[in-house]
Amino acid sequence: MSRAIKQGLALRQELGLQGQVETQALTDHLGLVVRRSRFHVFEEMRLGNFIAVADRFEPEGWRWAVAHAVGHGFLHVGNHFWMRRNTDLGRGFEREAEDFAFGLLVDPREAAAEGCVYSWQVAEHFGVPDEMVRAYMPFAFQQ
Q1: Which of 140, 91, 90 is nearest to 111 (CA)?
Q2: CA atoms of 6 and 12, how far apart (whole Å)
Q3: Fewest C-beta in 10 Å: which of 2, 51, 60, 72?
């Protein structure tokens, strides 16, 4: 399990989160402001305490994009735009933010305790995209 997944799970446990994470309550608690934006290229962007998320997302994708942006704030300091343009760190940072989002939004032990067997059951229980569950929980049976 990656360091970023562990950090996401630790925050989930610290905040006592279960089931679907309510992003508005989470970001309010963390002092973050989230707005929908008409991005054509980006999915999300975080600048300080402001998160902008593309308005094209369904609730599951929205939840994931917000958690991804929260992950950047916990894991990465500095100017991400400069780093993306001038270094190869951007790809690793994106993967870490994805890992953090998974840890924050999905607790495999809770999924097992709830009797979730299929990836779609895990996705439905936690309100996340099924493709992300399949990517992070390959042991979950596919239907």
Answers
A1: 140
A2: 10
A3: 2
Nearest to residue 101, comparing CAs of 73, 142, 140, 59? 73
Tens digits of residue pLDDT in 112-125: 999 998 999 999 99
Gap between the Cα atoms of 34 and 53, Å rounded: 7
Q: Where are the beta strands (DSSP E) in 24-119?
A: 33-37, 44-47, 50-54
How far is the C-alpha of 57 from the C-alpha of 4, rounded, in Å? 24
Q: What is the value of pTM for the model shown? A: 0.85
* Angle of CA points 122, 10, 112, to nearest 5°: 25
- Going by DSSP bridges, is the β-strand pair 44-47/50-54 parallel, antiparallel, or unpaired? antiparallel
- Provide the 8-state DSSP code for 48: T
